[in-house]
Design a protein that fits this description.
InterPro entries: UBQ-conj_enz_E2-bd_prot (IPR019193). This is Ubiquitin-conjugating enzyme E2C-binding protein. It contains 14 helices and 27 strands. It is α+β, with helices and mostly antiparallel strands and 608 residues long. The longest helix has 19 residues.
Length: 608
């Protein structure tokens, strides 16, 4: 049934807005249209309540013509014994009803939940509820809410909560901040913590506003061919014979890059011959801890490859004006090879195993072509430690909180090394989310953030089976805004562009606990059919200012306002801010013109 008046009863489309405040047992009604001045035109104004049908009948005479219409009353506990107060104002009619209990009283809330009239606000954005509901489905596809396009290759069945970016606050004892610290094990705990929440295939992480999917689980998306910061390019013109893999050396952290000495191959054979001509005595070899016997023929490449580069750089001095690259200290000077005295080097720096190497000058004995070398298992342990350190380096952005909630970020969640790229639907190009990257490549952590307000969990979208049907941009913003106001004790917020860092929107929170509903009045020609029930929904009342097209001087004034009032600062994608401004401006139509400005700023509301 249409909620608008017929043209014969009211050609100007009267609009109603019910409003109630938290803890106040009063329900207020605004009635207004665009061309009527009730204080002048509405003579003999009457307001009657039809309690059985939940209707309010409003009538008056205008130029000897009776005007009347009906207004549906929301489900509240009205005190029918109290009189109805009303008055005609300059641009609206105001009606007040007395309630038995405030609309947010726990008895009223329990009554509403029993009747299934509305979903509890506290459960609307419950993380535990989302994870349980998604996990119970067995497998879930995600769809674009705008065009119903499937976004995932296969159903996802593994769901977990995204860790808090404030994890350090609850991990003080990991780093020795209290008497029960774990000491040196803290790095292992942090590494395990970081790896536990990687964006793996066929798994999904959730936070308050987003779901985080692996880029390989998405359909129809191509990312640049780069895997974060874990792939490295080798130096040009580098062959296996010419290079030394630093992974086999010390924990230098070069991740497998090749360091190529500039020694010609023909000169390496000459140097090998010199070493083979050395007189090496054969003595009984005793296998000792830390050393093993392996079959290998002594050559210069194998000999150099077994020695850490750091030994040369720290212990071998180059000849004056000779060796600029002290890592290898082997340079080609017009077919003359500059090399350190390997015999004296080994005798001074390499300890021998007990009972093994009597000739300590070189510490490499030929036991019937058996070479005495350090136990590689010890090197393996060192490599494991090195790899653990590399994991921490790769997870640095995550551990520093730079990969957290990007729907509404704070300054400490942003880094100049991490750029957030918009992620759009391949079919309709609607915004779906964003992903972090470095230097314009693929997702830094392999994950793409999809905002819950733009995706659906089933088809058709926004139906009863859609677990994200209640998520809207306005509700998600309101939830984050109220959480911020509670944590920061600030009711003034400036929203900045995530890319330019310029202020785009000012918000002043007036009332975080308002309840309202709006619609168009009903005609009186149809009094038989039942009237559809309406419910009050929770909202916030705010003052706002669009700063998108301000001049430089006005921007400076806004910055001064932020500093003076210690306003909270948040960062959002420009597309999200633009949608919020449109919603705020549209919500101004809920109130008569005399109620749309306060202290020079527009007054509006957002659902919560």
């Amino acid at each position: 049934m249409s909620s608008e008046l017929g043209t014969s009863e009211n050609p100007r489309k009267w609009r109603f807005t019910w409003e109630a405040q938290s803890h106040i047992p009063t329900l207020r009604l605004f009635l207004f249209d665009q061309g009527t001045k009730p204080c002048i035109q509405c003579k003999n104004l009457k307001v009657d309540l039809n309690f059985e049908r939940s209707l309010l009948l409003v009538s008056w005479f205008e130029e000897e013509t009776e005007i009347s219409f009906r207004v549906p009353v929301p489900r509240v506990l009205v005190d029918i014994e109290s009189p109805i107060s009303f008055r005609a104002m300059e641009d609206h009619i105001e009606v007040k009803l007395v309630l038995l209990l405030p609309v947010d009283h726990h008895i009223v809330s329990n009554f509403n939940s029993i009747l299934n009239m509305s979903e509890a606000t506290s459960q609307l954005f419950s993380m535990d509820s989302d994870i349980k509901s998604l996990s119970s489905r067995g497998g879930v596809h995600f769809y674009c809410k705008s065009c119903s396009t499937n976004l995932t290759k296969k159903p996802l069945s593994s769901f977990a909560e995204m860790p808090s970016i404030n994890w350090r606050e609850v991990a003080d004892n990991w780093f020795g901040a209290c008497c029960c610290s774990f000491g040196g094990i803290s790095e292992k705990l942090v590494a395990r913590y970081a790896n536990s929440y990687s964006c793996g295939e066929e798994s999904c992480l959730l936070d308050a506003t987003s779901v985080i999917l692996c880029k390989d689980d998405l359909v129809g998306f191509e990312f640049p061919d780069r895997d974060g910061d874990q792939n490295y390019e080798s130096e040009p013109d580098c062959t296996e014979d010419d290079c030394i893999n630093e992974d086999m050396q010390d924990a230098g952290g070069n991740h497998g890059r090749c360091v190529c000495p500039t020694v010609k191959k023909e000169k390496m054979s000459d140097l090998s011959g010199k070493l083979n001509s050395l007189h090496i005595q054969k003595e009984p070899f005793v296998d000792s801890p830390g050393y093993k016997i392996i079959e290998k023929e002594i050559t210069v490449p194998s000999l150099v490859g077994t020695v850490p580069v750091s030994y040369f750089s720290e212990n071998v001095a180059s000849a004056p004006g000779c060796c600029a690259d002290n890592r290898i200290h082997v340079l080609n000077h017009d077919k003359e090879v500059c090399t350190p005295d390997t015999v004296s080097y080994f005798s001074e720096n390499v300890p021998s195993a007990p009972g093994c190497c009597a000739d300590n000058r070189i510490h490499v004995l030929n036991h019937d072509k058996e070479v005495c070398m350090p136990d590689t298992s010890e090197i393996s342990k060192e490599q494991k430690v090195t790899k653990a350190s590399e994991v921490l380096a790769n997870k640095k952005s995550f551990l520093n909180g730079f990969l957290g909630n990007i729907f509404m970020a704070r300054s400490y969640n942003l880094s100049k090394d991490v750029e957030w790229i918009k992620f759009a639907c391949p079919q309709c190009s609607s915004l779906l989310g964003a992903y972090p990257c470095a230097d314009g490549y693929a997702p830094l952590d392999g994950g793409v953030r999809l905002f819950k307000c733009y995706i659906s969990t089933c088809l058709p979208v926004c139906e009863s089976g859609d677990l994200f049907r209640k998520y809207t941009l306005e509700r998600m913003f309101t939830s984050q805004l109220l959480e911020s106001a509670k944590d920061e004790l600030s009711f003034r917020t400036v929203v900045r562009d995530l890319r330019t860092k310029s202020p785009v929107l000012q918000i002043v929170l007036l009332n975080p606990n308002s309840w309202c509903c709006t619609g168009y009045c009903l005609g009186t020609e149809d009094t038989v059919d039942p009237v559809a029930n309406i419910n009050l929904y929770p909202a916030i009342k705010v003052l706002f200012s669009d700063c998108s097209y301000r001049t430089e001087s006005q921007i400076r004034m806004i910055e001064e306002w932020v500093t003076k009032n210690q306003a909270d600062e948040v960062y959002m994608l420009d597309h999200l801010i633009s949608e919020l401004i449109v919603s705020l401006e549209a919500a101004m139509d809920m109130y008569p013109p005399s109620y749309t400005f306060l202290q020079g700023l527009p007054l509006s509301s957002l659902p919560r």
